[in-house]
Amino acid sequence: MKKLSPRLAFVNQSECVACGSCMDVCPRGAVSVWRGSFAVVDEGLCVGCGQCAKECPASVIEIRPRLSRTAAEEKIA
Ligand code: SF4
Ligand code: SF4
């Protein structure tokens, strides 16, 4: 099974201006702009490199620790 990176890009979608810069610089093709509205990160492809966050003109991307399955389940519970 593929090992996932410990960090991941998160987009504040309500502040995203859908410019597509993050999509252009992502080396993994992990970002897409959904219906011209906001950026969406494919969590399975993102390696947390931070390129997108550096390029975002609106500064709405943060690189954060990826939640482990257990932590994610605890959050839901
Ligand atoms: S952190 Fe890197 S791999 Fe992940 S979406 Fe941004 S540019 Fe792509
Ligand atoms: S670079 Fe920033 S503002 Fe532009 S689409 Fe990506 S997240 Fe949205």
**Low-confidence parts, pLDDT < 50 over ≥5 residues?**
none
Would you list the SSEs in sequence order as H and E? Answer: EHEEHEH
Helix proportion of residues, in percent? 10-25%
What spatial order of strands do you see in the largest sheet?
Answer: 1-4
Q: Count every beta strand, where a strand is a DSSP E run of 2 or more residues.
A: 4
What small-molecule ligands were found? iron/sulfur cluster
- Total helices: the number is 3
- State the distance separating the first and last CA atoms: 26 Å
Strand content: 15-25%
Per the principal axes of the C-alpha atoms, what is the gross shape?
A: globular
Mean pLDDT comes to 91
The count of domains is: 1
Reported for the largest beta sheet, the result is:
2 strands, antiparallel
Characterise this structure.
This protein has 77 residues and is an alpha+beta fold. The chain has a single domain (7-76), classed as Alpha-Beta Plaits (2-Layer Sandwich), CATH 3.30.70.20. It is 23% helix and 23% strand. Strands 1-4 form a two-stranded antiparallel ribbon. A hairpin with a 3-residue loop joins β2 and β3. The longest helix is centred in the C-terminal third of the chain and has 8 residues, at 69-76. The protein is globular, with a radius of gyration of 13 Å. Residues 11, 16-22, 33, 39, 55-56, 58, 60-61 line the site of one iron/sulfur cluster.
